[in-house]
Amino acid sequence: MDQTKINRFTDMIRNSGSTVFFGGAGVSTESGMKDYRSEDGLYNTVKQYGVSPETILSRSFFFAHPDVFYDFYYNYFLNTAAEPNRAHRALAQLEQAGKLSAVITQNIDGLHQRAGSQNVLELHGTTLKHHCPNCGAFMPVEQIKALKGQIPKCEKCGAVVKPDVVLYEEPLNERVIEAAVDAIASADLLIIGGTSLAVYPAAGFIRYFRGENMVLINREETAYDSRASLIFRDSIGDVLSQTVAALPL
Known about the structure:
34% of the residues lie in helices and 16% in strands. With 249 residues, it is an alpha/beta fold.
C-alpha cells in the first residue's frame, strides 16, 4: 500500500465538511458474499436453474415462479454466514466520529448496519425485511430463513411474501433516491468503493457530485477514473482500515 496515497486520503477526510461513501458489491466480497458480474460472480456461475440469475431476480419471474425464486434467494442471499468486514467497520467508525455523513449502497445484505452504520441509504432495498405485497403484513427474516427456500405465505391473507428488494422491472424507491442525490450533491468528498459504476440508474447519481475530491477504490477501471482525485486498486478493506487507523478519531 502506498503510504503517500493513504496520507493524502486521510487529509481529504480530515478537511472535508461532508464526506459520503457510495459502494457496491465489492464492499461485501471480503465478507464472502458473491458479487454479480465478475468472472466468479452470480451471473456467470449460477447455471442450475435453467434460466439466468437476472431473470430469476425480476418482478415477473418472482410472481410467476416463486418456488424457483425462493430456492435461489435462500441459497445465495440468506444461507450465508457473512459478517461485516474491515471496510464496513471502518465506515461505521468514520460515521461515529462525525467524519462520514452517509453510506449509499447498492448492496442488499445489511452488513453496513450490522457494523454499526446508522445513516445507510439502500438503493436496491434489503434482504433483512419482507412484506406481503397484497396486505403489507411484515414477516421477520428469521422466519423466512427457517423455511430454507420454501415459499413464505402471508399469515394474514395467504399471498406470497416478497423481499424488500428492488427486483429487475421495478423502480427504485423515490425517497431513497432523493436522499442519495441530496447527500452526494452536498458532499465535499465522495468516496466510491467496490463498484464498477456500470449499474444504472444507481451509478448515474455520481453525476450530481460537485465537491472538491472524489476517491475511487476499485480493482478495475471505471468510467469516472478521469474525474477522481485519488485512485486505489487495492483491497477496499485494506484501504479504509489503514486510512481510519491513521486518523485521530
